[in-house]
Design goal:
By secondary structure, this protein is mainly beta. Helices cover about 15% and strands about 35% of the residues.
Length: about 70
């Protein structure tokens, strides 16, 4: 076990998708006519040190790794 990091696995059984870093969302478009989405994945990719995703017969698994003490 790696004691200098925290690893969290999120599992669901929804439709599989390939999460990707969407880049910096345009905060100026935060209006009612804006299509929802984009900020959650952006937040994940900006705060985690590693993000991986896999799908198998046991569901969809997103693994988030944060190194402890990382700046």
């Amino acid at each position: 076990r790696d004691l200098d990091q925290v690893e969290v696995t999120l599992t669901d059984f929804g439709h599989p998708f390939e999460p990707y870093d969407p880049g910096i969302p345009d905060a100026d478009t935060l209006r009612e006519d804006r299509t929802p989405g984009g900020f959650g994945l952006h937040f994940i990719y900006q705060t985690m040190d590693d993000v991986s995703y896999r799908t198998d017969e046991d569901g969809n698994h997103m693994v988030l790794v944060k190194k402890l003490g990382a700046a």
